[in-house]
Design a protein that fits this description.
The chain is about 25% helix and about 30% strand. A hairpin with a 2-residue loop joins strand 24 and strand 25. The longest helix is centred in the N-terminal third of the chain and has 22 residues. The N terminus is likely disordered. InterPro entries: Glyco_transf_92.
Amino acid sequence: MAMVKEKEQNTKDKKLLVGVIWNFSAELKLTFMALLVLCTLATLLPFIPSSFSLSTSDFRFCISRFSSAIPVNTTTTTVEESSSSSPDRVLDNGVIKRTFTGYGSAAYNFVSMSAYRGGVNSFAVIGLSSKPLHVYGHPSYRCEWVSFDPTQDPISTTGSKILTDWGYGRIYTTVVVNCTFSSISAVNPQNSGGTLILHATTGDPNLNLTDSIPVLTESPKSVDFNLYNSTKKKYDYLYCGSSLYGNLSPQRIREWIAYHVRFFGERSHFVLHDAGGIHEEVFEVLKPWIELGRVTLHDIRDQERFDGYYHNQFMIVNDCLHRYRFMTKWMFFFDVDEFLHVPVKETISSVMESLEEYSQFTIEQMPMSSRICYSGDGPARTYRKWGIEKLAYRDVKKVPRRDRKYAVQPENVFATGVHMSQNLQGKTYHKAESKIRYFHYHGSISQRREPCRHLFNDSRVVFENTPYVLDTTIRDVGLAVRTFELRTIGDRLLRTRQ
């Protein structure tokens, strides 16, 4: 029996071997032919005369003849070739003088966004400039006022540049140029109109280029000089928002604007900047507040042509600062995923009165989770709540520092940043945490879905190695905010989606 099985196994192995050889017969023939040729050459090589040889130069010649028949897209010429199109020349000492010609534009000398009066005899020009130019070069600015009155001679002054982005710039950096004509009491005192021209010089020692840019034109009788000395302001509080981009959540924007319109009161205004984030659904949320005159929206999408830090937000906030500088007592800078709060026994008015001696104060951050929610109302009711009512867990992990936001009295500020201003006159206060704080729901604004990924009903939670405590500060005013929205603009936003 064992003998029979062994024979059957041998038969199967032979059939398998034959099958393999049959399937690869063509490849085996080529292999055997190659081995035959190599063996033949090895046999004949000792009998070949020494006068016949193949060198590497012969191979190069052969290859060059072959490649010359193939057309190529590039041409290489030597210095000595007369066909060279470059205007090179040979100096008396035999040195070949090479030249370099630039085409196109690597980065603009200056990109103008806006210019505003900073007073009766000063102006601020806001724009972008090539970052390498300011890092490695010595650009300068000169401001010139040309009156429409032909009897008035043009006047000029040296522009003082302020780089506001703390080195965060990319190809472009934000530049604020202050033009103060200190030798006269006022520019355009007869209100006859004129043009402010910015002369931007690259500072290149060998090829110093200057671009003359008309940055502001005032029509005759268009300037109200009383505006710059008046203590009466149109607003008590004005919000300057950074560039809004990405796929923003309409519901989160709805909650933020309703909360802060109620928080700041009637004498407040909100300036938002659309860098691609105000899609149709978000605009529908803002539309009722725009119609009430509470919100102004600026379309700044064209700035995407110029590669600056975070959609050129430093330039945007500086434009907002100078555009509305004389219209408000206080100006606030924070983001749309951050909610300001003052103690229950205080109001925003009482807090600001206590800080009037300061030109600027910073606001401490309270970091909130944008993923875990409080389920004290029951799971079914929790999902029907606003985000600020259910995102109630605060991160209490100890860290060296957290980002702050800030507010300024804008008339005392020459240029500003994202987290604070470093260019102002007057004092800055950094200990306002007992008076005002902001709750930061990081990442929640860009989530187009239900924010609650995990539900808890505990006062203390450790989630993904981060400790949290239940903090109902913003949650406690949620109902009041929803009621305020309904009374102010009606029920037109009730069907807002995440």
